[in-house]
Amino acid sequence: MANAIEIRQRLLDWLDERISLREFEDWFVPSTWSAHRENDPEAESLADEIEMNLSEYSGGEQSLEQLKGSLRELVNSVRPFAVSFRFEIPQPPREITLSDPPERIGPKSEFGADLDESHFVAYG
């Protein structure tokens, strides 16, 4: 099956008159008939749009100039795509230090001195 780039290139070949419409259709039909089975949503969507426009042209709903205009828009269109990526914002390392051994950690005064029960005032 043709991918979206190949489909656009062949379509451009017809639009720029390097090949005939018949030559394009002869390439297009067998190259895209299984587009719905492939894992290429862009190629499938592009093939569907081209097929619809060709059908409207052959049914008399579009003139040749309308067909060319519609298909030229497809050639020039850029389909949106999604890119998945993951990034992390680095965090600065955090330094954790204990200034006193764990058994000495307790309430401190505003000047850093150890406090014991005699320094607490009970309000009641």
Supply database-style keywords.
124 residues; elongated
Structural class: mainly alpha
Q: Please identify the oligomeric state.
A: single chain
Poorly predicted residue ranges: none
- Shape verdict: elongated
Number of helices: 4
What does this structure look like?
- This protein has 124 residues and is mainly alpha-helical.
- The protein has a domain at 4-76.
- The protein contains 4 helices and no strands.
- The protein has helices at 4-15, 21-32, 41-58, 64-76.
- Helix 1 packs parallel to helix 3, helix 1 (4-15) packs antiparallel against helix 4 (64-76) and helix 3 (41-58) runs antiparallel to helix 4.
Task: Explain the layout of strands and helices.
Layout: H1 4-15, H2 21-32, H3 41-58, H4 64-76
Helix pairs in contact: 1-2, 1-3, 1-4, 3-4
Could you provide a short overview of the structure?
With 124 residues, the protein is mostly helical. 44% of the residues lie in helices and 0% in strands. The protein has a domain of 73 residues.
